Amino acid sequence: MGHNLPEGIPLKLTRPVRDIRVDGTTTAAGLVEQMGRAGGFTAAKLAEAADILERMVADPRMYVFCSFPACIVATGARGLLLDMVRWGWIDCIVTTCGTLDHDIARTVGAYHSGTFDADDRQLHREGVYRLGNVFIGTDAYGPAIEKLMTELLEDLHEAGRRQMSSRQLCEEIGRRLGSKDSLLTAALEAGVPVFVPGITDGAVGSNLWMFSQEHKDLFVNPVLDERELADIVFTHKRTGAMLLGGGISKHHVIWWNQFKDGLDLVVSITTAMEADGSLSGARVREAVSWGKVSERAKYVTVEADITLALPLLVAAVAERTAKGRKGKARARKG
Question: Over the stretch 204-253, which tens digit does the pLDDT of each residue have?
Fold first, then answer.
């Protein structure tokens, strides 16, 4: 984040390392604040992320993107995304097709806690998918998604719908689910667009393909999404982003923001390594060279598991801003 001192300026030791102390009264915000003074490696970065996120959600003129991979939606972290959408912290979601898959499957069925070291051959024989240490019954995934998508696409086709964007498809799925537990339903109700640039890479995408075999006139047009994203970046002077994980979702957010001179505030959380040159492992500072993040931006990369860092981050900022416990939200931005 540009903490290196310019040449010739003497180093000043002005921030002594302080011990973290906790007791029965320690709050999330208080703990994260202590982490910022602890000289605690990644802990200090999480504290910095809290400061930047607080600035993002407190600025009513800032348009906030949130990108993430599908895997976290298979976990309890989905609840944090739901909260941030409902509180008005997020203005736009960019994610992967698997997010739609997991949101559907978890809304109409259930996932279960498992273990990383299970016997995968046994799981396969017993009809259980393993996603890390989450167990998913095969019936709770494929058949559930296929049923909902087939019925939805048939209804859309009968209503004369022939072309749609991934954002429009996400709205239709959210409307069909109609559940307080669904991320897509929450986004629909809050007016938060959900874009899926890799819409064919998942079970929902496979169902789109299968339906198209007999209905070749119904399709998802990704160019329609790009037009909307262009309108967003060209009409919002200030933009921020929570980049959770990497991949196509992260890149789509930073790619489009280069056309408005880059993001102004960025929090990135990743476990990917930088040394292999991957986009997922690239630190935010690399995006400055491309103009995807402004030279004047405040940003931080937190090297941590999203499911570990995000609960602390969200809890601390919710406490600081008095948002969350009563469902308060800042005004939606145009």
Answer: 999 999 999 999 998 899 999 999 999 999 999 999 999 999 999 999 99
| Residue 263 CB neighbour total at 10 angstroms | 28
Full DSSP string of 228-250: HHHHHHHH-SEEEEEEES-HHHH
CA dist list (Å): 51 to 26, 32, 234, 277: 19, 10, 27, 28
Name the pTM for this structure. Answer: 0.93
What φ, ψ does residue 137 adopt, rounded to 5°? Answer: -65, 135
Tokens standing for residue 313: 């981050």
Question: 233 CB contacts (<8 Å, ≥6 apart)?
Answer: 239, 256, 257, 259, 260
- The first and second tokens of residue 40, run together, are 């605690």
Catalytic residue status for 45: no
Which residue in 254, 314, 248, 309 sits closest to 285, CA to CA?
254
- Which is catalytic among the residues 45, 250, 260, 292? 292
